[in-house]
Amino acid sequence: MRRLLDALYDSAAALAALFMVGLLGMVLLSIISRQLHFHVPGTDAYAGYLMAAAGFMALAHTLKRGEHIRVTLLLNALRGSMRKGMEVWALGVATLLAVLFAYYSCKLAWQSHEFHDVSTSSDATPLWIPQLSMALGTVVLAIAFLDELVLELMGRRPRPQSDELLRNE
User: Domain Tripartite ATP-independent periplasmic transporters DctQ component, which positions (predicted)?
Assistant: First the structure.
């Protein structure tokens, strides 16, 4: 199961990287088209879609690598069962919020598909297409938070090293 979850997080990160390359392509196309005096409609909109997709798809991988910003001032002052209780409470709340975020992101993409909602910019892209990356990214994030919660409850969640704490704060 651990290999499957890690593969899921790594796959989402790889998709995020592909979206970043696509974003670079859109920006370069926009710059080149301006310099050569031709217009490619929708490049700004697609650059925005790709930027959002890259951000959402990278969320779970970032969480699992301990790169999300955490406020650890109170947590570092606690020891033993108080610290574990605070970690479980924080991860429980984060998991709940991530599940709600995933649910409503999926619901938004589905409603955009059902209502044939399209972008108001010149590209007129069906909005459910770029919203899929948000929905998928939030689902993977919810899985990652649930994974972290289960690992914490089982006592198998790795603790960040001291140099990692300096980097995160």
Answer: 24-151
Q: How far apart are CA 19 and CA 6, in angstroms?
A: 20
Round the average pLDDT of the chain to a whole number and report it.
91
Rounded-to-integer distance, Cα 53 and Cα 135, Å: 10
In sequence order, the 6+-apart residues with CB closer than 8 A to the CB of 54 are 16, 17, 19, 20, 23
In angstroms, what CA-CA distances link 22 with 43, 47, 54, 135?
Answer: 11, 8, 9, 19
75: containing domain:
2-168
Count of domains observed in the chain: 1
pLDDT digits (tens, 9 = 90+) for 29-60: 999 999 999 988 889 999 999 999 999 999 99
What pLDDT does residue 160 have?
58
* DSSP symbols for 65-108: TT-S----HHHHH--HHHHHHHHHHHHHHHHHHHHHHHHHHHHH
